[in-house]
Amino acid sequence: MNSATADGPATQDAPAPVTPAGGPLPEAISRRLQGLPAVRVEGAALRTVELPLVSPFTTSFGTQTVRHALLLELWGDGLRAWGECVAETVPAYSSETLLTARETLRRHLLPPVVGAPARTVADHLAGSAWVRGHQMARTTLEMALLDLAGQAGGRSLGQILGATRDRVGCGVSIGIQPSLDATLALIEGYLAQGYQRIKLKCRPGYDVALARAVRERFPSCPVMLDANSAYSLRDLETLRQLDAYDLMMIEQPLATDDFVDHAALQAAIRTPVCLDESVHSLAAAHTALALRAGRIVNLKPGRVGGFLVAAAIHDLCQAHGWPTWVGGMLETGLGRAANVALAGLPNNTLPGDTSASDRYFHADLIPEPFRLAPDGTLPVPTGPGLGVAPDPRRLQETTLEYEVLR
Ligand code: OSB
Ligand code: MG
């Protein structure tokens, strides 16, 4: 059945809700949700905030100077909860954008939740389980629901997800710089702050000389590269040359869907391949493991459709002996708090892209920014839910758009 609506062309009716909990959830997810109370969502608001970055961030697909983030605020039973969407303004890292995420949330993900009777997180999410893709939008809703239910039940996100440590080791992701000297100077500064590993963005033509220069200057520093899909197997000779520099790993050298090529590459080089973009679901993680398309997985909740799916991928990788670590998408303190909670899980044995607030912003959204300890760690938040909330004044200063949904 098709119907024309005021705010768009003919649209299909939404499929009947999947009941009662979207079919059987993977055990790794249902186990984590056990014991969380049902929650009522009385209202929701979407807001776009703008935070200037401390310095431009350049990857193989472009340069960012500000972080625009979509925040979801839910309230109910006297509580207020937050979700952060990691989609960017352009569909370069993934096919989602702030606009597709916003539209998916307001048209499809939020209507089954806002104003519904008290429900468990699983049952709230089941109302939109039919939505295909839009992982970043779905993660935003899941994050806010976990914050709400965590607050209602007195459990931190780390406890819900199964964190086993109270501090997590942190690395830092350095964008492509105008010169090698600029890169070396940045590395020196971050190492002095305590960061446990350095990730360098690379691209064809800015790779072997970069690795060589860094190795010469910092012989024993844990270093890795992130190509954001800039190579193909035609570049095998270049990628092979990187083996000489004792890199911890090379992240996402090939295209998102190139599992077979990643497997061929991993068989041809010594440097461990770490998958980022490729692992966009639990099934994709299965594919990567079965094909040996790498040896390490970067866990990003927004990319896989939620913190619970990310935790399930964590467990799967653990069972296969692949280390995992938690990536980042230049999150504000809200998303950072959630990422740090996920990073507390036991198989996250490598330092994550969970850097301190001042790596990204002069002023974060949360009143107490994340500060790096001299040993290169951040504390896993212990308060119920996310354990953090935005500072109202900072919200006001950074908000570009605000919309209440009822
Ligand atoms: O590929 O890991 C990536 C930031 C935006 C989009 C993609 C990536 C990144 C980073 C930054 O590398 C990680 C961070 O948040 O510090
Ligand atoms: Mg990456």
Characterize the structure shown.
By secondary structure, the chain is an alpha/beta fold. 33% of the residues lie in helices and 21% in strands. The protein folds into 2 domains: 27-154 and 392-405, Enolase-like, N-terminal domain (Enolase-like, domain 1); 160-379, TIM Barrel. The protein contains 14 helices and 15 strands. A 7-stranded parallel beta sheet has the order 7-8-9-10-11-12-13. A 4-stranded antiparallel beta sheet has the order 5-4-3-15. It has a two-stranded antiparallel sheet with strand order 1-2. Helix 1 (27-33) packs across helix 12 (307-320), helix 2 packs across helix 4 and helix 10 (282-291) packs parallel to helix 12 (307-320). It is globular and about 60 Å long. The two termini are 25 Å apart.
Number of helices: 14
Which word captures the global form?
A: globular
Instruction: Please report the total strand number as a whole number.
Output: 15
The helix-strand sequence is EEHEEEHHHHEEHEHEHEHEHEHHEHEHE
* CATH superfamily caption of the largest domain: Enolase-like C-terminal domain
What order do the strands of the largest sheet run in, or round the barrel if closed?
7-8-9-10-11-12-13
- The CATH architecture of the largest domain can be named as Alpha-Beta Barrel
Low-confidence stretches: 1-10, 17-22
Q: What is the top-level CATH class of the largest domain? A: Alpha Beta
Overall domain count: 2
Give the termini distance in whole angstroms: 25 Å
Mean pLDDT: 94
Helical fraction: 25-40%
Examine the coordinates and then state which fold CATH places here, giving the name of the CATH topology of the largest domain.
Answer: TIM Barrel
Describe the sheet with the most strands: 7 strands, parallel
Output the structural class.
alpha/beta
